[in-house]
Structure formats: C-alpha cells, structure tokens
Design a protein that fits this description.
single chain; Rossmann fold; 37% helix; globular
C-alpha cells in the first residue's frame, strides 16, 4: 500500500506535549498498516520541518500559513486527512469543507471535552464554547472520529458517526521506553503528580485537595513522604507551611525529564472530580505511569476503572474527598516493600497489555474500511 495519510493538528511534535505523543502513536499505527504519513502542526515553538521515525512533519507558528500550505498540497496522493482541533473554529471549518469538496475522507481524533468547572469564567469561557461547538456540530456525519474514551465513543456512535475507541497508546519499541523503571532508592515514599503547566487548566486536577489530605497526616507520616509536582510552579499555590518540606515543585520540564522523575517514584497520583471533562478525556500520565511499572493512586473517572484495580496495580481512591485521599495516602505508606513490588509488576503488565499500539491495529484497519 502506498497511499498517504495527512495529519493536520496542533502540538509540539514529535514529543513536546501530550498531544504530540498521541499523534505520534496514531501515526505509527498508520505506518504499520502500510500508509505513508505526513504531519502538519500548529506549534507554539519555531517553525521547522524534518523526519522523525518515518513521519515527515512540518511545524507552523502561524495558523494562516498552515491552512494556506495545506490547501496547496497535491491532494491526489492522500487517502485520509486527520483533521484535528486547531484552536480556531474558522480554520477547522475552512479545511473541513475544502477537503470534503475534494472527496477526501476526514478523520478527527477527539481527546477532550471541557467543563465549566475548569474555567474561572465558567460558561462565559470562549475556550469552553469553542470546544463545545466543535464536538457537537462540526464533527458531523461527513467525518470519522477516533475517540480517546468510551464517553466520546458512545456519544459519536449514538450520532451515527463512524467511530473507534483508542485510548492513550504507545509504541513500546520506541527508545524512550527502553529504560526500565527501578526500585526507588529513597527511604521515603515518593509520589509524583505530573500535569499541564497551563495555569488556566490546573483546576482539572485536585492538587489543593491532595495538599489538604497531606496536612491531615501526622508528623511521622509526613516525614516518610516525598511529593513531586511536575509541570507546575510553587507560586501557583498557597500551601500550609507544615507540608512545604514534603512537596517539591519541578516546574515545566521535558517529557524525558518527566518520565525520569516518574521512573524513580513509588506511585503517581491523579485525582479529578466526576465532570464532563474528566469523563471525556483520558490521562496520558495515567497510561505512562502504569506502563513504566509505577502504580497509580487515583479515583475512578473516564475509563480508569477498566485498568486500575485496588491493591492489584495501584490504589483506588473511593471518592473525591479529602478524607478519602488521606486514607489512600495512609494505605500507600503502610505497604511493605514486597507488596509495592507486586503492584509495580502488575502495573507494567497492565500498561503493556492495554496501551500498546499493536492491540488496536486490527480495529483501526476495520475502522478505515468503514470511513466515509
């Protein structure tokens, strides 16, 4: 097969953010099916182009330049166009209509659906309304949708749109996965949170609740605990002085640095309220953590309950309350080393069994056969 798939997306390809990791993994799946892959991406870095593991890519700092360039391509060589959220509805609509008129099959990778709770302006947030309009109306029957969660998959299936469920997946043959997580050398229990450095979105994860739960621990328990906060600055939070020594903020770091910190952790933690955004999305860090053999501490949102099992590959927080988070931390602190090692082995097995791109190749192939 010599047909080409064109990705048009918004990320710091090839591995500068979670969406870059997602698009790289999907591109590798198309390569395994015999397609060539070209990727155009809007980036907040400098424009450049190159080839990365078989993917020809070009990055644009201007959305107008990206749209103009995409329209100038020789379209006869493309079988599918993966048209993702570009941050501007007009640009998305413009390219959607252009490619449909040219008779190309359009695919959209749907990975999130915001909630008012994430934004200080709540219903007045332009970002909230833009995503709502895109997901509800611009993703129509003329398109095909890859859904990162069952919440999104069911929504589009019910709209009679050709859809497939592909969670966060990785190409485990990639060099970044060749370093194996080892037992942390620290005598303290190391728990790592990794999240977006964008302060407008930090509310999506319950860090303030986690800090409050830590403050409930007695002094001896706090001294046995070390919390890494990756991707956020200390200035974004007001923390009780008695837990300051327990928490280390790393700020924004590269994916390689983030994974290195995670590899040296006993647990990672993800705490989100049950809301549309937490049910529609799927955490990249959740899948990365298990795949590195780092058990999770998390409450059940999205499809996490399909993968996280209490005291098998992590600790399930029973509900989204400070008391429940406190109880989960107490349980993590009480685990003997051999129990943690068992959880670690099971976590890695879950990751490789559930988040390997090869697990979804056949389903993607069947999805493409039905693509309009």
């Amino acid at each position: 097969m010599s047909e080409t798939v064109l990705f048009i997306t918004r990320c710091n390809f090839p591995n500068g953010d979670a969406n870059a990791v997602r698009q790289y993994s999907l591109a590798q799946m198309f390569l395994k099916l015999g397609y060539r892959v070209e990727l155009l991406s809007l980036t907040n870095n400098n424009s450049n182009k190159g080839t990365y593991n078989g993917i020809n890519y070009q990055l644009f700092s201007s959305i107008e330049t990206l749209v103009q360039y995409a329209k100038s391509l020789p379209l006869e060589k493309y079988r599918f166009v993966m048209l993702n959220d570009l941050g501007k509805l007009r640009a998305f609509w413009n390219l959607k209509q252009f490619f449909l008129k040219k008779g190309l099959s359009l695919i959209h990778d749907c990975v999130e659906w915001y909630s008012k709770e994430e934004f200080s302006k709540r219903y007045l947030s332009r970002t909230l309304w833009r995503k709502d309009l895109l997901n509800r109306f611009l993703l129509s029957k003329g398109m095909n949708v890859i859904s990162i969660s069952n919440y999104l998959y069911k929504y589009y299936k019910n709209k009679w749109i050709n859809s497939i469920y592909i969670p966060v997946v990785f190409d485990f043959s990639d060099n970044s996965w060749q370093l194996i997580a080892s037992t942390p050398l620290s005598t303290k229990l190391i728990i790592t949170y990794s999240g977006s450095p964008q302060t407008s979105h930090y509310k999506k994860d319950a860090l303030k609740e986690m800090f409050a739960a830590i403050s409930l621990l007695d002094k001896d328990s706090q001294e046995k605990l070390h919390i890494n906060i990756v991707g956020l600055e200390e200035k974004d939070f007001v923390i009780e002085s008695k837990v300051n020594s327990t928490i280390k903020f790393h700020g924004k770091v590269s994916r390689e640095e983030s994974m290195a910190i995670l590899r040296q952790s006993h647990f990672s933690i993800l705490l989100r309220p049950v809301a549309r955004y937490s049910m529609a999305g799927f955490s990249t860090k959740f899948a990365e953590s298990l795949s590195l053999g780092v058990p999770m501490i998390a409450n059940l949102t999205s499809d996490i309950g399909n993968y996280l099992h209490h005291l098998e590959n992590g600790i399930v927080v029973s509900d989204f309350s400070i008391v429940s988070i406190y109880e989960a931390l107490e349980q993590a602190l009480s685990l003997p080393p051999e129990e943690w090692q068992r959880l670690s082995r099971n976590a890695k097995r879950t990751g490789y069994d559930c988040f390997d791109i090869n697990q979804y190749i056949t389903e993607l192939k069947n999805f493409l056969k039905e693509a309009r």
